[in-house]
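Hi there. Long-time user, first ticket. I'm pasting a complex I've been working with (about 605 residues overall). I'd like to know whether the download I got is complete or cut off, because the file seemed smaller than I expected. Thanks.
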Amino acid sequence: MRLAISILIAKFAGFLSKNILRKSGETIPGKVLLKLDSSAITKLSANRKIILVTGTNGKTSTTKVLTQIVTKLGKTVSNGTGSNLNWGVATTLMKKSDYAVLEVDELHLNNVAKAANPIAILMLNLSRDQLHRMHEVKRVADRWHELAKSLPGTTFIGDIDDPFVSYALSGATQSIKVSFGGKKHQDGAVCPACGKYLTWSKQNYKCTCGLSNKNPDQEFESASAALRNANLANVAGDFLGAKPIAINESELERSVLRNFGGVEAKIRLTKNPASWKEALSSITKSQVMLVLNARQVDGIDTSWLWDVSFVELAGKKVVVTGDRALDLAYRLHVQGINSIIEKDFSKAIDSFERGAEVDVLAAYTAFFSLVKA
Amino acid sequence: MSKINIVRIHNELLGTYGDQGNAEVLVFRGKFHGITGNIIDVGYNDPLPTNGDIYLLGGAEDAAQLLSLEALNRDRETLDLVIERGAVILAVCAGFQIIGNSFWAAGKEVAGLGLLDVSSTPGTKRYVGDIKIKSTNLEIDLTGFENHAGKTILGPTAVPFGKVLVGHGNGDGKFDGAINGNIFGTYLHGPILARNPEFADLLLNRATGRKYSQITDPLAVQYATWRRKVTK
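Hi, the file is complete. Here it is re-exported in full:
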């Protein structure tokens, strides 16, 4: 079957899914297309420049920033809503463009990259996340490293303060290594390249095998995770010939504001120990809600809660909700922090007064259901 | 009021799957019993303290597991001394494999510390999911989360830690872990002591040589009961 006909059928399937099943319509067309033509991503990637963005945290927001930068160079498409598996990529590529900036899941990166042959891949960071699916951080890093070795025509851009990214980039023929003067990595006790104990001096690491964050190609000042990622987007944009955009830390999108029955909620996405730490340090209000589910994309194991210190919440009013509210409540309890447990989100909201301003930290599925509400 | 030292071994290496919480739960439960728990974190380059009452090992990736074993072999004499003294050891997942006779990591077989008569081999599939076992010591159900590819075979002198009700445990789906006196090995993350406060109390009893009466912590009971109910 010709690609054009496959696309027509896939688009029709997407139309049905969107209008009859009321789904997002971002997954179905790609799924149908790849069923009809397994090499659709390769075909649709020809004659345009593809840039992939991957990493444990910050994929969606960095993809948005990079799309904004690249759009100035020509028509650009992006899977900006986070549909980041191969079918989400296929759906996005069904639209014609000069450029495609695509966020890709850490484990799906190799398949997508080998099919799309991107001009550049931006690697943000790698840390423990959804271990029921990823199994081991090192396993993901090995796949990235292997990918870098297999794509000599692709430029790999990444934050080498992260030893896993640094290891991945070390396999690349072309790379742009970026450093922000170092950052201690929670999972960085072992050298991902050689397996030796990794020596850290404050924020910087150096292994006897040669892996280190010294001698980057570009160096920036130390920055928050969001600011790092925005700078990395500028580096990728610069590589493509786009002018960098001014980055204002306070304007970087981290949270979404919603009003629930008179309660002003500032909702922030949290996924894993690294992102919970960032989010907890950003809490400014004295009333907090934590929402935790453990559905597939959230990670079905909640053990990682014990890798996070919730000490920032001491003295605040804390309400916990979601499928796994009890896991959170007991974790907080052992740290000496009392919380109110509400199974139901609307009841959780009712436990705040009207007009209250509440910091809401919500894990993946909870975040998206709240933001859509 | 008694005091105990809780030694968290190589958390930087054996802390990938949340098991560091076991130490916090021991301190927390200890408070109810009037026990002051002091957590001592031991890094890869630090000597193993001789004054521990409870020693904890957690889950890890292969390279980290090998580094931890290397460091513990360096401190073999201390370890033997500590065990002779009757200290409690709780080893989870990669930690459990380390204290067995042998295990596989990064594609090769290595000799373990031999504290438990078990040997682990790489399995053909990974066991990932909720697990429930009937505990040998407590005659109650313990719940947790398992995430490992290794299969563990019990030697002739090994006693299983529990009988598998849900999940895979040592890989045969029959038993999980192994025990030898005060040495406990298991595949249960969760962390295991957070999910099963009764087991934390058992370890505290063993470490102090006293039998503490039951305590009331409704939230702990609610959490443990709920996990037992939903793990099926």
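A couple of notes from our side: Chain B has a mean pLDDT of 95. The longest strand of chain B covers residues 118-135.
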